[in-house]
Amino acid sequence: MSNSxxxxxxxxxxxxxKKETLFKLISIEPDTLDRLTKATGxxxxxTQMALLQLVADGRVKCRNENGHRFYAART
Length: 75
Hints:
The protein has 75 residues and is of the alpha+beta class. Helix content is 47%, strand content 19%. Helix 1 (15-28) packs across helix 3 (44-56) and helix 2 packs across helix 3 (44-56). The mean pLDDT is 88.
């Protein structure tokens, strides 16, 4: 069994579908941009854009913890 992260999504998804996929991941557990990029397989710029849209929509918040920026779903 491999410990590597396998992407959960396809690159050709619509922007709205990407936001929803990312929101589902963040709802399970807050995480960093780097780890979310690996989990989605989209690339850093695409993942960051979806995150910023979720923050602007008020669905996600970010916090700094131990020198890392974590993204979490707003409850």
